[in-house]
Amino acid sequence: MDIKMIEFMKGKLRLLILHMLSKEPKHGYSIMKEFEDLIGYSPSPGTIYPLLKDMLKNDLISVKVIDEGKGRSAKVYSITKKGIDYLNEYKEELSRILTFAESMKILRNMGLTRISKIFRRLMEVLPSMNEEQRSKIAMLLNDCSKKLLEVIEEVEISE
């Protein structure tokens, strides 16, 4: 992944974290778990904690260390006024991200994971296929595309 893509993804994660924290303060682990629910995977601690550190440095969030007893403490992150302003500035982008995340969740529940596995297998065997097999795949994809567009158009007409 190139540096532009990494920065692009960080921007999306930053907005999602601010959105989460706008609802209530959270531990880093809670943020990772909410990502699991929201987008279907949890970014690694190596992704989340440096991003939280950067957000702290830029005053988008604050942190409070809570004593949990028995010598244990936890960091709880909260959104700041600057973070709320940032979130408001990018609310349209956040709305698109949340819509996309919700759509992905629905698709996963409809079998997207299975379809993704099939496409990965297809990508592996495609170079080994003969023209007749490739033609069958092309016809199936074309037919599927047409049927999906028919349903999409039904929804668009009814709106």
Helix share, percent: over 70%
- Shape label: elongated
- Total helical elements: 7
If classified by CATH, what would the architecture of the largest domain be? Orthogonal Bundle
Q: How many E strands?
A: 2
Mean pLDDT: 89
**Residue ranges: pLDDT <50 for 5 or more in a row?**
1-6
User: What's the CATH C level of the largest domain?
Assistant: Mainly Alpha
Q: Kindly, what is the distance between the CA atoms of the first and last residues, rounded to a whole number of angstroms?
A: 39 Å
- CATH-defined fold name of the largest domain: Arc Repressor Mutant, subunit A
- The biggest beta sheet, please? 2 strands, antiparallel
Instruction: State the order of secondary-structure elements, H for helix, E for strand.
Output: HHHEEHHHH
Overview of this protein structure:
The protein folds into 2 domains: 3-109, Arc Repressor Mutant, subunit A, CATH 1.10.10; 112-158. The chain is 73% helix and 11% strand. It has helices at 3-23, 28-39, 45-57, 81-89, 91-109, 112-125, 131-158, and strands spanning 61-69, 72-79. It has a two-stranded antiparallel ribbon. The radius of gyration is 21 Å and the shape is elongated. Residues 1-6 have low confidence and may be disordered.
